[in-house]
Amino acid sequence: MIGSLRGRIALKSPPQLLLEVGGVGYEMEAPMSTFYGLPAVGEEVRLLTHLVVREDAQVLYGFASAAERSLFRNLLKVSGVGPKIALAILSGTSVEGFAACVTTNDTAALTRIPGVGRKTAERLVIEMRDRLSSEQSVTSGGFAIEAVKPGAEGEAFSALVALGYKPAEATRLIQAAGAAGEGGAASTEELIRRALQGALR
């Protein structure tokens, strides 16, 4: 199994990516969440990978973070979800956003992702909720622990979602709250206070 690759980007054509490593070009597919952070063609990058073996092909997928790859692998375990839909989910929402949709049963947001219908969205919420709430995932550094940003921003995000805010709205409020600070890292409580004040304006 190829776990990661470090090399020079030779081609970027979403979702395709060509990475040259030691004179060998590795073709792979990557979600838009990874593409957004890639350097320019010719620059070096390290990507985590996952190899999918089918009867007619072997497809390598690349990810910028462990959280993205972990979510991708968990999505493949959901009934009716293959690599194409898993890639679309990671391209249509962030890891944090997907986790919030699952914990708040927001199937409507998931159905806005191309390829995800109502039944698939319902299965995602039901089956992924178990993985999100799994104590093993939390303690082993798996998907659940990586699904939310660390630190005050992640805690504030979770709090706002728990209060009923949609993931996108919670993200916007936290970003605005951070920008409204006087410099320095704000505490979780301070971020929540500023975000709620911003929501009332």
Number of helical stretches of at least 4 residues: 11
Q: Segments where pLDDT lies below 50 for 5+ residues?
A: 135-150
SSE order: EEEHEEHHHHHHHHHH
Oligomer: single chain
Question: Approximately how much beta-strand content do the residues carry?
Answer: 15-25%
Total beta strands: 5
CATH topology term of the largest domain: DNA polymerase, domain 1
What kind of sheet is the major sheet? 5 strands, antiparallel
CATH class of the largest domain: Mainly Alpha
| Gross morphology | globular
Task: Specify Rg, calculated over alpha carbons.
Answer: 18 Å
Question: How does the helix and strand content classify structurally?
Answer: alpha+beta
State the distance separating the first and last CA atoms.
Answer: 52 Å
Strand order of the largest sheet: 3-2-1-4-5
Helix content: 40-55%
* CATH superfamily placement of the largest domain: 5' to 3' exonuclease, C-terminal subdomain
